[in-house]
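Example 205.
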Amino acid sequence: MKKVQSICRALQQLRKRGEIMADANIPYSLNSKHVAEATRSLLHERGVTLAEIAELVMILQKKYYPNLTMEECLENVDAVLSKREVQNAVLTGIQLDKLAEEGNLLSPLQEMLANDEGLYGVDEILAFSIVNVYGSIGFTNYGYIDKLKPGVLERLNDKSSGVINTFLDDIVGAVAAAASSRIAHRKQADLEIEVTGTTEEDKNL
Ligand SMILES: [Ca+2]
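Predicted structure in complex with calcium ion:
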């Protein structure tokens, strides 16, 4: 009996840490830490580093803020990835890319994702939920970086590798666009505080 109790306790602890799936007897409750960690670990698994996303931010913002540092860009990418809405989009998009790569989606979605079908735009719609987090200026940044496809975006769009990144390319572009918008809002707040001692900008963005 003691052995059974100790196994139950160990299982409960693992569930709390999100390391095993909950069963029907234990009510579901969201483990925020697990969601955040899974987001970062999936990006890493798909070969995308935060530094590469920060480089995109630098490309987008250096003309507006010549003194912007890579460290600041990285900080802002990190802040964007801490938002639950962003994590949800990253988890969903990468999951679909992986399932498509394994051939596990139902037809015709399987073929559409595998071939990055031009008339399939749900990848971009999902990315908009990331861009949206920091307001409408993110859309301009997203459109610009998506057209230019510099750095990591060029690699993610390379179809010759056999890797399916139909969702991931848009997700990465969107995270960079959102981080750029965050920088713009915060720089504006800094400027207003410097000039007037106060700001209407939300410093907690
Ligand atoms: Ca795409």
